[in-house]
């Protein structure tokens, strides 16, 4: 029971964080994946979540390797496109 209560509290905290993130102007959604790139939480429909997860997993793998080669102290890579921005952490 204690584990279940802790998991429920953590889930509620995650939901609150996602609400805050998506309330910012210009944010169109969020996607959280596990270490294998499988979507575990998303505001996107399932097909979009799976598609983005696959693409972002490849990007994250390549970005992680490049950043480590450049500077081992960097933990995230901001992405800036003309119309959209993202953060791979």
What does the model show?
- There is one protein chain.
- With 89 residues, this protein is an alpha+beta fold.
- It is 52% helix and 17% strand.
- It is globular and about 45 Å long.
Can you lay out the helices and strands and say which pair or pack?
Blueprint: H1 2-22, E1 31-33, E2 39-42, H2 46-70, E3 77-80, E4 85-88
Antiparallel strand pairs: 1-2, 3-4
Radius of gyration: 15 Å
State the order of secondary-structure elements, H for helix, E for strand. Answer: HEEHEE
Could you give the count of β-strands? Answer: 4
What would the average pLDDT be, to the nearest integer? 78
Residues in β-strands, percent: 15-25%
Low-pLDDT runs: none
Secondary structure tally, helices: 2
Structural class estimated from helices and strands: alpha+beta
Shape: globular
- Strand order of the biggest β-sheet: 1-2
> How is the main sheet built?
2 strands, antiparallel
Distance between the termini: 32 Å
How helical, in percent, are the residues? 40-55%
């Amino acid at each position: 029971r204690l584990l279940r209560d802790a998991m429920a509290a953590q889930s509620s905290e995650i939901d609150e964080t996602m609400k805050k993130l998506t309330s910012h102007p210009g944010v169109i959604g969020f996607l959280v994946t596990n270490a294998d790139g499988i979507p575990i939480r998303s505001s996107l429909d399932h097909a979009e979540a799976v598609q983005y997860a696959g693409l972002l997993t490849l990007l994250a793998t390549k970005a992680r390797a490049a950043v480590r080669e450049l500077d081992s102290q960097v933990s995230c890579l901001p992405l800036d496109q003309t119309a959209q921005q993202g953060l791979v952490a």
